[in-house]
Design goal:
The protein is of the alpha/beta class. The protein has one domain: TIM Barrel (Alpha-Beta Barrel), CATH 3.20.20.70. Helix content is about 25%, strand content about 20%. It has seven helices and ten strands. Strands 1-2-3-4-5-6-7-8 form an eight-stranded parallel beta barrel. The protein has a two-stranded antiparallel sheet with strand order 9-10. The longest helix has 12 residues. The radius of gyration is 16 Å and the shape is globular. The mean pLDDT is about 90.
Length: about 210
């Protein structure tokens, strides 16, 4: 594998509450994710996102998560929530992902050995691998076979998602050596309700690699 040793970035996704955002301060979180997919139990409206944006602790970048959304909607929400990055969980083309002028993550559901050469067309975006679900694009809390993320990554950065939690993320980081990890369900007490102690333990497990 073509992998460099680096600090693993951490994204907490599916944030919906002001108290959860406040609790991220000082924990070493890199990205805060807001889900704009209406079918998600962690969906936030444009109005709510505009309220929450100012509550994101300094140093944490805001990521908007979209699933096959219209261009004008992505643009409107990027402005309303002052997004730093975009994350696409649908069948969006590489050209569409690049066209907004913002850094982006492109998510893929893993159903077999991942084709990194095909994913390279999404450069300069980073690749997020998640478990496959026929009912939901992400946020399932289900783990996939991490070995399917292996192979020559063609110089691209991997963000590992799907079923991560404080008890298994350390092993995931040691085995897969991702650029970043993304968690939502694994640090919750209920959908959209984060458990700050679980987040603290998650971060400690990542950093203890």
């Amino acid at each position: 594998m073509n992998i460099s040793i680096q600090r693993v970035t951490i994204k907490i996704c599916g944030l919906t509450r002001s108290e959860d955002l406040a609790g991220l301060a000082g924990l070493g979180i890199d990205f805060a994710g807001f889900v704009f997919a209406p079918r998600s139990p962690r969906f936030v409206s444009p109005e709510r996102a505009a309220e929450l944006k100012s509550l994101v602790p300094a140093g944490i970048k805001k990521v908007g998560v979209f699933v096959n959304e219209e261009r004008k909607t992505v643009e409107r929400l990027a402005r309303a929530a002052a997004l730093d990055l975009l994350q696409f969980h649908g069948s969006e083309s590489a050209g569409f992902c690049r066209s907004f002028g913002l850094p982006f993550f492109k998510a893929f559901p893993v159903t077999g050995p991942f084709d990194w050469r095909a994913a390279a067309r999404y450069r300069p975006g980073r690749i997020l691998l998640d478990a496959f679900s026929p009912a939901r694009a992400g946020g399932t809390g289900v783990r996939f076979n991490w070995e399917l993320a292996g192979g020559d990554r063609s110089g691209m950065d991997l963000i590992l998602a799907g079923g991560l939690n404080p008890d298994n993320v350390g092993e995931a980081v040691r085995r897969i050596k991702p650029w970043g990890v993304d968690v939502s369900t694994g640090v919750e007490s209920a959908p959209g309700v984060k458990d700050i102690e679980k987040i603290r333990r998650f971060v400690e497990a990542v950093r203890a690699r």
